[in-house]
Design brief:
Blueprint (H helix, E strand, L loop, with lengths): L3 H13 L2 H4 L4 H22 L5 H18 L2 H12 L11 E4 L1 H4 L3 H6 L1 H7 L3 E4 L3 E2 L13 E5 L6 H13 L3 E6 L3 E3 L3 H7 L3 H4 L4 E2 L3 H9 L12 E4 L4 E4 L6 E3 L5 H16 L4 E4 L17 H17 L4 E4 L5 H4 L15 E3 L1 H13 L3 H8 L9 E5 L12 H6 L4 H12 L11 E6 L4 E5 L2 H4 L2 H6 L3 H20 L3 E5 L32 H5 L7 H18 L9 E3 L7 E7 L7 E7 L5 E4 H6 L7 E4 L5 E3 L4 E4 L3 E6 L1
Parallel strand pairs: 1-2, 1-17, 2-5, 5-11, 11-12, 12-13, 13-14, 14-17
Antiparallel strand pairs: 3-4, 6-10, 7-9, 8-9, 15-16, 18-19, 19-20, 20-25, 21-24, 22-23, 22-25
Helix pairs in contact: 3-4, 3-14, 4-13, 4-14, 13-14, 16-17, 22-24
This protein binds alpha-D-glucopyranose (2 copies).
Length: 650
């Protein structure tokens, strides 16, 4: 859009730019800056327009974008242009992600390169390496308390190692996902150190207060994220003699985005990692970016403006790079991280589908799909060119973030139902086979979340202990059913590193005092390569899970109806145990798949009527893609075995 005020400011800025920038050949840069400048300027003005140094800050932002563009390597610039042409590339069904810890899966970045064949064997082609930046050894929050945003922790390797890994991945047609922890720094970060020494410039990077007056006002409305290990949202810093805002752990200082210098630093960091070859950046804890007194300090409008700015700036310098929003918030709020006032994603192209994840766990505990169906029905419509990251487990706890109205519509009392789920997954509920632990139990609110590995939560651990073959089979089926769902739902499936071989809870963390109080570590075990080897041995648990997953993954890549073009339709069938939805290839309506998940421990029937109404089963039989066999209507219904999933095609 052409707008006089922003256009003349752009001209002034271009004149003011350092001569070495002005003289470089920046054709694509200037074109994109011109196209995005109106948006960047307007957003920057909305956030910082009242400041006397507004123009200097604007110049500094544009300089940052230009300097990082100059540094962007020719292959990455070519990839930007190619992705610009094939702009729906990431909606394709061929992408399958996995999240893993570099040191727990391999020793270091070099070692990780040698493990790529394992990932490719399974069919993984998008690799999220959990944070690898320099952190204090003890107070690291698993890598999310960063001490230096541009330095790889020497335990993992060097910048050259990550560049080499990025290049290897590219050759293998695999994507690299890296984290940028945008909301906070470690208290040992240089900015925090300088703030502690009394440097006002850096105290302004954080929320720092002389006394409790303002913190107390904030506390009236701010929830606690880690109520057990880090109660309260402020920490007294002895050296500084002041209070500092620490929403997560007390050693994680929240950055203050009311200061434009903070935003510019962070955009610089984002572009730095884009230039190291990351295809996708996972922006951590984005819901928390803007703090406002009197609010819960999550999902504030300004947090969205900041993300839009980050996106627009990335669009200028590294347009081929995508963002993942890690916003584990209520169903209605999550979709807003794609961008609100747009048709196409204008914030993050990808977001964790925390709602679907939590709903799947509900179906596991209740053994029916009531709430799952209700929750999916009310999932907000998402934008075009935006996609979900669908996952079953990750390195964090499971929050029961459903909408209370959905819980009621499914026929449950929200408080009692959440209590049941916690009891079920922590094994307190009679006969529950799950072996999880409560996380962040808050006696003030009665809230709790759940920790534990996928296999232990679905009952594999208890079944193996009692050598109960039937229970082992049920646990394996549940693991496959859950993956069958995330592979077909629409979006990019994200597996978690131990899950393809049935990794159980790991209690080693209890021996480490810096981890013992945080039971999320029970699901962050060292990958056991000799256990993984058993995937080659017929009949082992590892082989039963791995080979079935591998098959489903390969299949998904072939089914064009599984690409994400908002092409899912939920079928409201009467049987409460079944989740049924159809996926259709928008290019070719005849390519469609009916996905049926049975969450009950008993076989279920799905009436032919319901299917014919939606144009399925007109031929009396359909092919189950997962097994290759044809399913025939029996007594005008199809029988769906217990805890299993069908992908049916004509
Ligand atoms: C994200 C991470 C989590 C971390 C938190 C604070 O939610 O996934 O592990 O504790 O941010 O950085
Ligand atoms: C995340 C989420 C919270 C989660 C925590 C990490 O950002 O907001 O639900 O439990 O941080 O565990």
């Amino acid at each position: 859009m052409y707008e006089q005020a922003s256009h003349s400011l752009l001209n002034e800025i271009l004149v003011d730019l350092k001569p070495e920038i002005g003289n470089m050949r920046l054709r694509h840069f200037y074109t994109r800056l011109g196209a995005n400048f109106y948006a960047i300027h307007s957003l920057f003005h909305l956030l910082y327009g009242g400041r006397p140094d507004f123009k200097e800050q604007m110049v500094s932002l544009v300089e940052t974008l230009a300097l990082r563009y100059i540094e962007r390597s020719p292959p990455l610039r070519r990839s930007d242009l190619a992705r610009g042409k094939d702009y729906n590339w990431f909606l394709n069904q061929k992408w399958i992600g996995m999240a893993l810890y570099c040191d727990r899966f391999a020793d270091d970045l070099k070692g990780l390169r040698t493990k790529l064949p394992y990932l490719q064997d399974l069919g993984i082609n998008m690799l999220h390496i959990m944070p690898i930046l320099d952190c204090p050894p003890d107070n690291s929050d698993g890598g999310y308390a960063v001490r230096d945003f541009k330095r790889i922790d020497p335990r993992f390797g060097t910048t050259e190692d990550i560049e080499a890994l990025a290049a290897t991945l590219k050759k293998r047609d695999m994507l690299l996902v890296l984290d940028v922890v945008v909301n906070h720094t470690s208290n040992e970060h240089e900015w925090a150190q300088r703030a502690r020494q009394g440097d006002q410039k850096f105290q302004d990077y954080y929320f720092v207060f002389d006394d409790r007056e303002t913190p107390d006002i904030y506390e009236e409305t701010m929830p606690e994220i880690f109520p057990v290990t880090a109660p309260g949202n402020f920490t007294w810093d002895e050296e500084m003699g002041k209070w500092v805002m620490t929403v997560f752990n007390n050693y994680q200082w929240d950055l203050n985005y009311r200061n434009p210098a903070v935003l510019i630093e962070m955009i610089d960091i984002i572009l730095f990692w884009a230039n190291q070859g990351a295809d996708i950046l996972r922006l951590d804890a984005v819901a928390f970016l803007w703090k406002k007194m009197g609010s819960v300090c999550q999902n504030e409008r300004e947090a969205h403006l900041l993300l839009q700015l980050m996106k627009d700036c990335c669009q200028v310098t590294a347009p081929g790079v995508l963002f993942i929003a890690e916003a584990i918030v209520s169903p209605g709020e999550i979709a807003k991280y794609f961008g609100e006032d747009a048709i196409n994603a204008k914030e993050c192209e990808i977001a964790y589908n925390a709602t679907f994840m939590a709903l799947l766990w509900d179906a596991v505990a209740t053994k029916n799909a009531r709430l799952l169906k209700q929750g999916i029905k009310n999932l907000p419509v998402k934008l075009e060119r935006a996609t979900w990251l669908n996952y079953v487990r990750c390195h964090d706890d499971i929050g029961l973030g459903f909408d209370d109205r959905d819980v009621q519509l499914a026929g449950y009392d929200p408080v009692q139902h959440r209590r049941f789920l916690i009891d079920y997954f922590t094994g307190r509920f009679p006969d529950s086979p799950a072996r999880g632990m409560p996380f962040g139990e808050n006696p003030k609110t009665g809230d709790a979340r759940i920790s534990g590995s996928l296999a232990s939560l679905v009952g594999l651990e208890s079944a193996l202990a009692s050598q109960d073959e039937e229970a082992i089979a049920a646990a394996i089926k549940t693991i496959l059913l859950l993956h069958g769902m995330i592979l077909s739902f629409g979006g990019i499936p994200l597996l978690y590193y131990g899950d393809a071989v049935g990794t159980l809870n790991c209690l080693e963390y209890l021996a480490d005092p810096s981890k013992a109080a945080d039971n999320r570590w029970m699901n962050r075990s060292t990958f056991n390569w000799s256990k993984a080897e058993k995937r080659h041995q017929t009949g082992t648990v590892e082989q039963r899970i791995f080979s079935a997953l591998k098959k489903m993954i390969a299949l998904r890549k072939e089914v064009t109806a599984f690409a994400d073009f908002d092409n899912r339709q939920l079928l409201m069938v009467d049987n409460p145990n079944l989740l049924v939805f159809s996926r259709c290839d928008p290019q070719n309506a005849r390519n469609r798949v009916l996905v049926v998940g049975n969450f009950s421990a008993e076989a279920q029937t799905l009436p032919g009527d319901a299917l014919r109404q939606h144009g399925f089963f007109l031929q009396e039989s359909m092919k189950n893609l997962c097994s290759g066999e044809r399913i025939v209507l029996e007594g005008d219904a199809i029988a769906v075995p217990a805890l299993s999933c069908y992908w049916l095609a004509d």
